[in-house]
Structures are given as C-alpha cells and as structure tokens.
Amino acid sequence: MKKIFTLLLLSCAWLSNAQNNFDPFDYSPVGYWTFEDNANLGKAEAGYGSDLVLSSVGAFTQVAGPAGTFAIQSNPTAGINSFLACTHSIAPNGGGTRVNQWSIMIDFSVPALPAWNCLFDTNPATPGGDGELYIRSNGGVGSGNLWGWYTGGASVVTTDTWNRLVVTVDLTQAIGSRKLYVNGVEWMSADGVAIDDARKSLLSIVNFLGDPDFEQATINLAQVAIWDRALLPAEVAQMAGASLLGTAKFSAANNTLKVYPNPVNSGSARISFNMPSASKNASIELIDLTGRVVENIFKGSVDQGEQTISWSAKNKYNAGNYIVRLTSEDINQTFSVILK
Predict the structure, then answer these.
(1) For the stretch 196-214, what's the b/e string if a residue is b when 16 or more beta carbons lie within 10 angstroms of its beta carbon?
(2) pLDDT at 8
(3) Selection from 159, 289, 265, 225 nearest residue 26 by Cα
(4) pLDDT for 82-99, tens place per residue?
C-alpha cells in the first residue's frame, strides 16, 4: 500500500551511513553498457542510450567479468583501429557548440601494460589524431598535452585486476574543471580555460578504446557509462573502490527513487521510492554541488513497499543542480534534481 508522509523539516544536521552499493542508474546516465548479450556485444541497457557500434567485429569477444558477470575483450590487430563507437545524443551544453559538461565511467582490466593503451577518443573525426586517455607501461593513467594529464609517480593500475575509472569534465569551472579518479580516488586534476569546443569537449560520437595511431592493446571492459554532466566528488566517492566491481550487474528497476516535477519550479515536489524492506533508519538528504548535505529532508521509520513523500524547498536554496539521496540499512539511491 502506498504511504503518504507529511514531512517535518529537521533543524539539525544528520549524516547517514552510506551503504557500499553502486548502481549507475542511481545517477541517471545518458548511456550505459554491460556487454552481457553475446549476440549483440554493444547493446545498451534499455532506455539508456544507443547500441555501441563495433568497428572491427573480429577484434571483440565476450569474456568473464567480475563476480560471474561478462565483459567485452578487445584484441586489436596491428595497423587496425579497433574501437566501440558511441553516439551519445547529448546536446551541446555549458555554453559552447559541443558537449562541455560530461562524465565517463569505465570498468576495465588489462593482462599486460604496454607503452600505450587507449581508453577513449573524444574527437574521432580527426584522422591520425590522438586519443584522450591512456593506460601506460608504468601503471599510470594519463594523457598528453591536449589535456595536461601526464602519467608519473606510483602505479595505479596492475595487471589482471578490475579497476573503476571515472573522468569528470565541466569546462564552465575555472578550477578543477577536469578530474580523473581511479577506484574512487582522485588521480589527477586540471584547471579549465573556459569553454573549449575542442579536444576537451565531446563531439556527437565518442570512441571507447581504439586509437587513431594504433596505440592500443588487449583490454577488458565490464561496464561503461556516460553522463551529460560532471559527477560530483561525493558521487564518485560513493562509486568508490574496486570491491564494488564484484557486484552483479544492475537493471533499471533497481533505482526507484524519483523526484517530480523536475526541475522543481514551484518550490514543492514529491519524492517517490520503493523500500525493499521496512526500515527504522531511513534518510533522505539534499546535497549541493560540493557534496555538502544542505537539508535533511526526512529521517525515521519507513514501511516496506512504495512510498511518496511531500517536500517543499520553496525559497530556501539558490537555483541550480542538487542531489537527493535516499539511504537505509539496505538501500542507497540518488536522483539529480534542478531547483529553479
């Protein structure tokens, strides 16, 4: 039975115990691929983007992924650019003519560390150009002068180990406009130069793997996702370490948290979700772009089943992007909202 709660706004701060679960659907990706369908290795999860196009079908095979799942393996041939073409359908954003606000997540493992192994290319329309991100022979992850990210220092990638890489880009930010995380830890950061509309932004197609100069090697991908915004540091931290890669793949049904209407124009909204079990310690929080909890929307007991909660944010906060987060003993979901 659906329950309707009238909320009392809490005046004191309360920090929830975040659960160690990550479902990409919690963060509303534009595209999400898990490589579980051997008949269509580029198949997108239903409702989340278009199928990836395999440039060299023979170079890609389905292999075992983490914890009983599947992955796609690329075995490129010398002199052939083997990539997965992603037509992401993200409209130009951030004020430029290209996509200037975006994020990419890649779960990968490698059997060896060659001199260069390309992860993605943001500008595949330039023949003979460079990719944007590489795994290097020292176990580092980085790029050349187009991004200002160079490998160096201690190794972050080891062979035959699954890693979660996240790149976030917001070229409207002067400081920290580009960040790279490996297993939830910030590996590199670079400052911006306003709107780029070149290699730091996205064209309508992004190539995963491959390289125009054939700087590629065998690599396995278990999950890939793309967003039309820069994920928050708190969100990337919640995705966190390689231990999460042992979690089975997810379906869209796992993420039930919704806020409507969105954007919140009138200052009032409803928050709906489905509780897998009753909880005495459920929490709903509003989080700003810095990862700070700005409002404890709800804390208390919630029954099992479908729930709807009324929420009023009228005249409380600046207009902009926020995250609504739901946590309990066995659930951890987020939903991106816009306040106007």
Answers:
(1) bbebbbbbeebbbbbbbeb
(2) 27
(3) 225
(4) 999 999 999 999 888 999
